[in-house]
Amino acid sequence: MIKEKTEHVKGFHVHLLPSDAFKTNTFVLQIKAPLEKETVAARALLANVLKSATEQFPSRKDIRAHLDELYGATFGIEVTKKGEHHVMAIRVEVANERYLKADVPLAEKALAFLVEVIFNPFLTEAGSFDERVINTEKQALKQRITSIKDDKTRYANVRLLEEMCKNEPFGLHPYGSIEAIDQLTADDLKEAYNKLLSEDQFDLYAVGVMTEEDVLAALPERKVNINESTTQSKNNLPEEVSTHEETEDIQQSKLHLGFRTPVRFSDAEFAAMQICNGLFGGFPHSKLFVNVREKESLAYYAASRYESHKGLVLALAGIDPKEYDKTRSIMVEQLEALVNGDFSEEELQQTIRMQKNQLLEQSDTSRGLIELSYHAVVSGVERNIADWIQQLEQVTKQDVIDCAAKVRLDTVYFLHGEEA
Q: Do 14 and 150 lie in a common domain?
């Protein structure tokens, strides 16, 4: 297991994961802020603008040329939500120089480029972001939002969360809305950028072969006024189930159910909740897959996923619209079966093995390692891989029953065609 070393220096949380197991060195800067309606669109657009140009490399073409000089280094920025946090992740991955004949300090140059992206953006002589760049990136971001509707499964999931969490930050899409993006100005972006530099939490991950001194020397000094506490939203169990229907020109209907659970990543029961979700719909041997899709032939797909930083379980199925009532009932019955202990010890152990394998597979990649480590930042609770695996191995049948008993159906979202 790779041992992580963490330091708080120069306004950064620096996470060093030294390893010679990878042929690349990977740097990821995770920038965390509260997920808020007033700022989500500006931060999403800002990510696009920062990605497109810097002071030293004032166009996408210049950036691509520089990455080519770094032996085909890869670079990207994405925005996501993790619980009630809005996270901008800047990633640079470069070949490990020990695998090259040329003597080039690639890790040093890659980290310098990452610092350039966030601290030296391309600005006009007046000190604002360029309007042409802003307008280009507005169109690109709006297109990404529009394209969500082309993937009906993804669209149904977005709509489920919008309805289920409409009065909570988690209901916001990490890209914001098209209407909000249209209204953004260069001044709005500069304000969002200044706020990001001074208030957001910066976690820099470095995975590969490099020294602590080299990493720290590359970082500028940040003057920050930051609240580094984790954001835990209220997640009250529902008093009644709400149902929402929507019509689109589609053949395969989407029935998505949103459940709430008080168990989150930071809780002692987290591993048991993972296994509970695995038995419910997380794997091909799960109850949703076997009983809804295989046995009853009611669904083209049937699965569930666990949003551990928010406390949600989302059950998803693609169905014939005529089978709505029957499918909904059977999906809910699968959770009730877990509450009643209707699963074997063999199924429990199979789920534990698959959950462990999934965890180990993720830890076999540098980006997977970073993602696993960042759970501790978001939740405020550290859980290393060895402890995590041990906790999974100790989950009992009663633990799963207890977790399942805490899960409550909150929202039903049904997307269907006109004929339905």
A: yes
| Residue 102: pLDDT over 70 | no
Query: φ, ψ for residue 124 (rounded to 5)?
Result: -75, 175
Are 256 and 178 contained in the same domain? Answer: no
CATH number, position 159: 3.30.830.10
Element (H, E) at 274: helix 270-277
Convert the pLDDT of each residue in 357-371 to its tens digit. Answer: 999 999 999 999 999
DSSP-based three-state secondary structure for 20: coil
Residue 285 and residue 359 share a domain: yes
10: its two tokens: 């120069």
Cα 348 from Cα 368, distance rounded (Å) = 25
Report the C-alpha gap between 221 and 281 in whole angstroms.
47
Question: Do residues 109 and 252 both lie within one domain?
Answer: no
Tokens, residue 371: 């993602």
63 and 203 in a common domain: yes
pLDDT exceeding 90 applies to what percent of the chain?
85
In a domain, 232, yes or no: no
Amino acid 280 reads F
> Are 317 and 189 found together in one domain?
no
The Cα 84–Cα 114 span in angstroms is 26
What pLDDT does residue 1 have?
65
Angle at 128 between CA 124 and CA 134, to 5 degrees: 90
Can you give the pLDDT at residue 227? 53
Distance CA 226, CA 222 (A): 11
Say if CB 303 and CB 286 are below 8 A apart.
Answer: yes
Tell me the C-alpha distance between 359 and 209, whole Å.
23
Q: How many structural domains comprise the chain?
A: 2
pLDDT, tens only, 17-33 = 998 888 899 999 999 99
Distances (CA, A) of 372 to 227, 378, 382, 383: 23, 11, 10, 9
Domain of residue 302 covers: 242-416
Whole-structure pTM value: 0.93
**At which of 200, 217, 234 does a domain end?**
217
Segment 73-101 shows an average pLDDT of 93
Q: Is the pLDDT of residue 234 over 80?
A: no
